[in-house]
Amino acid sequence: MSYQPPTDYYQQPQQSGTRGLGAGITSIVAGVLSPIAAIVSIPLGIAAIASQLSRYNQGNDAWWVGALVLAAVAVLLAIVAVVCGLIAVFRAGRMNAGRVTGIIGLAIMAVNIFGVTFLVFLLLGSAQGA
């Protein structure tokens, strides 16, 4: 008689249902940081305009470079947030932590996009009234 281990001895442990969680967290973080980078680029753009208008600061393009870099970072973070959110939602097979965080990240980006669109229409409307 030899010892026979139980049949479940060689089975792998069950996954805890976190597929897509990393992509979902990345989507949330990028969705939160994207408007922050965009908002920080606005004062740099204003400073760039003021720098160009100043007669004492001729040829100082550092403000423009900073504003453009932050605007590019904001756009890149927005793209990362949407892509990671979609990856998290589709990678998770069922409703788990990965899918929930992906949905939250996509919702944050939807609010950001709605806010920017509303701001653009608001500015266009105020320009027409003048």
Topology:
Elements: H1 21-53, H2 62-91, H3 97-129
Characterize the largest beta sheet: strand count, sense, and whether it forms a barrel. Answer: none
SSE arrangement, N to C: HHH
Overall strand count: 0
What class would the helix/strand composition place it in? mainly alpha
Poorly predicted ranges: none
What percentage of the residues does DSSP assign to strands (E)?
under 5%
Rounded mean pLDDT is 81
Number of helices: 3
- In whole angstroms, the N-to-C terminal distance is 97 Å
Shape type: elongated
Gyration radius from CA atoms, angstroms? 24 Å
Percent helix range: over 70%
Describe the fold and architecture.
The chain has 130 residues and is mainly alpha-helical. 74% of the residues lie in helices and 0% in strands. The chain is built from three helices and no strands. α1 runs antiparallel to α2 (62-91) and α1 packs parallel to α3 (97-129). The relative contact order is 0.19.
Short description:
The protein has helices at residues 21-53, 62-91, 97-129.
Descriptive tags:
3 helices; 130 residues
